TrEMBL record:
This is Response regulator transcription factor. Residues 3-119 form the Response regulatory domain. PANTHER family: TRANSCRIPTIONAL REGULATORY PROTEIN YDFI, TWO-COMPONENT RESPONSE REGULATOR. GO terms for biological process: phosphorelay signal transduction system; regulation of DNA-templated transcription. GO terms for cellular component: cytoplasm. Keywords: DNA-binding, Phosphoprotein, Transcription, Transcription regulation. It is found in: Cytoplasm. The lineage of its organism: Bacteria, Bacillati, Bacillota, Bacilli, Bacillales. Its main location: cytoplasm.
Length: 209
């Protein structure tokens, strides 16, 4: 079972989405929070497989909550589920450590799919979010770091942008899973990013896809 913590200050949203998720064979909502402070406490207490995080909540917002969770638990997988698509929400959330970014307009089954994909190591971004990231990054003027990547590392990076997990990459390239993990670690180091999501964003930013 994929254990999920759902943090949202709208009770009806929590009830509706949690009911759908709990009806799935492979997903279990083990805890709910109605503010960021409670979300941090429950996340560190239960260590769920996935955290669904609203952005605008009382006491502490989702961005700060995400940052505090990731600081104490770097392996946390956090999916932002929000109504906001503006720049001051999207980029800080991803920079804080969010793995995926979904909109509340998404259907419950799409959120369930995002949970499964994120659990498997993929990063799910709404198309609108991807478009905004690409536009912003193309205009940022940063010095590219990808020239340091070997041909194999570039190949793996491109597979990561397709949402491939380490196991998928291992199977597709016929190399050991341990070798894939080493390559991914090297990619993150050379691109000076902290996780796969940021590596994918880098690829979009520099038109590598």
């Amino acid at each position: 079972m994929i254990k999920v913590l759902f943090a949202d200050d709208h009770e009806m949203v929590r009830i509706g989405v949690s009911a759908y998720l709990s009806a799935q064979r492979d997903i279990e909502v083990i805890a709910e929070a109605d503010d960021g402070t409670e979300a941090v406490d429950l996340a560190l207490e239960h260590r769920p497989d996935i955290i669904l995080m609203d952005l605008v909540m009382k006491e502490m917002d989702g961005i700060e909550a995400t940052q505090k969770i990731v600081e104490q638990w770097p392996d946390a997988k956090i999916i932002i589920v929000t109504s906001f698509l503006d720049d001051e929400k999207v980029y800080p959330a991803l920079e804080a450590g969010a793995t995926s970014y979904m909109l509340k307009t998404s259907k419950a089954e799409e959120i369930a799919k995002a949970i499964r994909a994120t659990y498997e190591g993929q990063s799910i971004l709404e198309p609108e979010v991807t478009g905004k990231i690409m536009t912003k990054m193309r205009n940022s003027g940063d010095i590219p770091l990808h020239e340091q990547l070997t041909n194999r590392e570039m190949e793996i990076l491109l597979l990561m942008t397709e949402g491939k997990t380490n196991q998928d990459i291992s199977d597709e390239l016929y190399i050991a899973l341990k070798t894939v993990k080493v390559h991914v670690s090297n990619i993150l180091g050379k691109l000076q990013v902290q996780d796969r999501t940021q590596a994918v964003i880098y690829a979009f930013k520099h038109d590598l896809v």
